[in-house]
Amino acid sequence: MKQEADKKWELRLYVAGKTPKSVTALSNLKKYCEEHLQGQYRIEVIDLLEQPQLAEGDQILAIPTLVRKVPEPIRKIIGDLSNEEKVLVGLNIRPA
Amino acid sequence: MSKPQKTIIKTPYPTLPKTLTGINGLDEITEGGLPTGRPTLICGEAGCGKTLMSIEFIVRGAVQFNEPGVFVAFEEKSDELAMNVASLGFDLKELQQQNLLKIDHVHIDRSEIEETGEYDLEGLFIRLGYAIDSIGAKRVVLDTLENLFSGLSNQGVLRAEIRRLFTFLKEKGVTAIITGERGDGTSLTRQGLEEYVSDCVILLDHRVINQISTRRLRIIKYRGTVHGTNEYPFLIDEDGISVLPVTSLKMANSVSLERVSTGIAALDDMLGGKGLYRGGSVLVSGTAGTGKTSLAASFANETCNRGEKCVYFAMEESPSQIIRNIRSIGIDLQKHIDSGLLHFNASRPNLYGLEMHLVAMHKCIKKYKPSVVVIDPITNFINIGSVSEVKNMLVRMIDYLQEEQISVMFTALSLNTIVNEQTDEGVSSLVDAWILVRDIEFNGERNRGLYVMKSRGMKHSNQVREFVITDKGLNLIDVYLGPGGVLTGSARQEQMLLEETGAALHSQAIGRKDREILRKRKVLEAKIASLNSEYESVEEELNKVYHEEELKKQILAKSREEITRLRKGEVAYNDKKEGKKEKK
Hints:
- The complex is a heterodimer of chains A (96) and B (584).
- Chain A is of the alpha+beta class and 96 residues long.
- Chain A has a single domain (9-90), classed as Glutaredoxin (3-Layer(aba) Sandwich), CATH 3.40.30.
- Helices cover 25% and strands 25% of the residues of chain A.
- A 4-stranded mixed beta sheet of chain A has the order 2-1-3-4, with helices on one face.
- The N and C termini of chain A lie far apart (27 Å).
- Chain B folds into 2 domains: 18-243, 3-Layer(aba) Sandwich (Rossmann fold), CATH 3.40.50; 259-478, P-loop containing nucleotide triphosphate hydrolases (Rossmann fold, 3-Layer(aba) Sandwich).
- Chain B is 40% helix and 24% strand.
- Chain B has 16 helices and 25 strands.
- In chain B, strand 10 and strand 11 (231-237) form a beta hairpin.
- In chain B, helix 13 (354-368) runs parallel beside helix 14.
- The chains are: A alpha+beta (96), B alpha/beta (584).
- Chains A and B meet through helix 1, strand 4 and helix 2 of A and strand 6 and helix 5 of B.
- Strand 4 of chain A pairs parallel with strand 6 (113-115) of chain B, so a sheet runs across the interface.
């Protein structure tokens, strides 16, 4: 276990229902996180069909959108996250 | 076998339902507003008023028609937007609190967004849907979709999603406005997509001609309805947008038989004794300093004296200048301004384009509802447009005023002293009456002559009258038409004096003659009297002879008898015997 007990990475995945894209995105995300950020992350999945009022707060346009809340600055990755390289760079897990 | 008679019920074809925008004039051009439940595209270049028009649509919908609206701003934050339209008197915060308006700022920053793989814009749809449902919105504005393209790179997805968005808006049943920036070349939008999926496309334009900018609006497309196709000028001012459906010239105005006085009794006399027709147009043209403004001011003064409203568009002088100058001829316009009957609207012609002037005048007239309008002068319009453009504008002005039964007086400066059959603006054929004021230069002085060049539908004087401006007002005097031609001013006075002297001499001469006749008659009468007495004496003389003769005869007869008697002795007896004898 690492020194930081609290999660270093707070990720939020916005989806709209169980669409293939959303399902792919979630499974991709989980895979990458397990590989690179084991134990340091927390994923929150928000279904906008159930909570549409949350879309405005994070400026969500596209579905699926992955938002990195922590660490700052906020980064957004849209799409089904199929490109691992781009996701890791986008989340600043791996330097570009 | 015959079929049973069917009763044919004529079902009227459902016409396209429309939503009133509440924007001045736009509803007239679109014949009822934007298509209800369908998306409309407003496109144009930067700064042409797209955002303003769309926000006005939302605000007027909320305020006037109680239809809540959602404004999705891709460009400006809601605070900025509120600030920008506060100058138009729109209080967005208040409307938001009343749940009549929802502003959703959609922020897209390419640097924050990484794209990997497939995505769609369901998030935007959900946001929009949520915003619409939360206040029950009937109107939606998306300003501007363009920003989606700058923020996201997958063109294919975006194009497909925008198509889906339009369908989504239709399904939601909201009347939507989508704004779009004008693309390069001939395409209306950058993506060349929105104009095809919108049911109505309005193009806004901001053109500068001769350093004067005019905003114009044109409806390019409106599915399922007729609409005006021309370019219409529009104005953005403190009341928002006003569009002017200026070319609705149907020439089907009703006319009035009522007459209005011009303020100069003698001029009314020249116009059939009653003045101008209400709702008519009159042009006063003349060279510089002939008193056109004085005539116009007198007309305005008369109108206000009747208790009617008048709007005076001053194009050359400031209101205070006019008031001061007109006071010198004994007309006090200030009291009418104070009583609210007279309204001055002063603006230099160069202030904005012709169309804008027209729009501004319309607005002013609509606001004050005058019965008389004065435009003084129209000449300077020529600086900002060609003759045909100015004429066109004035036609529209006259048409509008006629429709509203407003009398109008134009003044125009004609540049040469030779009477021109055509004024510079070529409006003389449009107006109902044309009064010409001209200089008559004679005998080392200039005087003013006035005549009625034309006056439709009334008996009018063909005389040239002298137009005098005194400190008690304006008046018309008969000009003197002597053997030497038309005399005015001091020459007329002199001639009149001369005539008076002549008349005095004449009457004296006549008196002398009369007296002579009298004397002659007296002489003659005396002569007649003497002749009469002469006649009498002659007559007497003659009578005397006659009497003498008679007397002589009598005496003779008497004496003969006497002699006879003396001879016969027995006068009576003998007489008888003698008589008998004589008989035998």
